[in-house]
Amino acid sequence: MEEIRKGNCPHCGKPLEIPAELEEFSCLYCGARSKTADLCVKKAIVAGEFEQRRQVLLQELPKAVTGYPDYYKKITKKDFFPAFERYENENRETVDSLDLCVDACPDGEQAGVELLCKDLLDAIDAYMQADRRRNKSAIQFEVKVVLAIFLTPLIGKRKLHCAEAFRTELNRRWLERYPKQLWTPGDYDVMASGFRKRKWCFITTATCAYEKKSDDCAELTAFRAFRDGWLTEHGGQALIAEYYEKAPGIVTCIELCDNPAERYKEIRERWLAPCYRALQEDRMEECRDRYVAMVRTLEQRYLQ
């Protein structure tokens, strides 16, 4: 008689019966491919366990968002890493409990994820509605920064098995509620790499990359020559140091908390194209002043 392994799909949690001789299988419900060895044999769920864990998370998880209203100011080269470390230390236990909660959902992991995301967004919405002193869009931006740059990256960094399902569902449900308030779940390793880089042309590089231009295109080559030549020779070291501090956070916010297509188009037309023309026509002071104006404007928009 053929040996059968019984268990639950590691992705959707639905009950399955899989021939033990198969090394891999496709779930009949969600279609995901998994190894037979990863088939989850769930313990009997204690009555009410999911609801108990859900209620605890309902009290704690919203604090991981609403408790950090000034964290959009922490997205600089100097402040990002200590701010993220503090955030992780304060919220690690709550975030790790997501797996335990969704594992206890009698209707499967995805159902548990959906309920928890709804709970979280309901709580966030109540928080934003209660603050009548400030502009709603400003509050939404603060919340988006925490969701995109701190909470969802931490969930991924902790390597929860529900991480991608939770990050995706939370973002989807947010955009259903607030379609004009765009954000994208961040990846900690990608962000960390960006903050560690030292590039004068960080915003220009990001804009050119979005436009599918190469890293050695004529525009970037010209700006780098301007940095290493005229600007350095004319007392620009302080400006360069300031740029290294602010630019990674600006680009991170554009990529994760805004509409990149719209924003890079604005940057191109309003600042970079005139700056590049000024360089070509040997109007160095004008190039410097326009570039500084760009950084100041974007800093005011995202980091202050």
Shape: elongated
Structural class: mainly alpha
Mean pLDDT: 90
Strand content: 5-15%
Strand order of the largest sheet: 1-2
List the helices and strands and how they pair.
Blueprint: E1 4-8, E2 15-19, E3 24-26, E4 33-35, H1 49-60, H2 63-66, H3 80-103, H4 109-130, H5 136-157, H6 163-177, H7 188-196, H8 202-210, H9 218-233, H10 237-257, H11 260-280, H12 284-302
Antiparallel strand pairs: 1-2, 3-4
Helix pairs in contact: 1-3, 1-4, 3-4, 3-5, 4-6, 5-10, 8-11, 10-12, 11-12
Question: Could you please describe the fold and organization of this structure?
Answer:
This protein has a two-stranded antiparallel ribbon. A two-stranded antiparallel ribbon has the order 3-4. Helix content is 64%, strand content 5%. It is mainly α and 304 residues long.
Task: State the main characteristics.
12 helices; mainly alpha; two-stranded antiparallel sheet; 64% helix; single chain
Brief synopsis:
With 304 residues, the protein is mostly helical. It has twelve helices and four strands, in the order E-E-E-E-H-H-H-H-H-H-H-H-H-H-H-H.
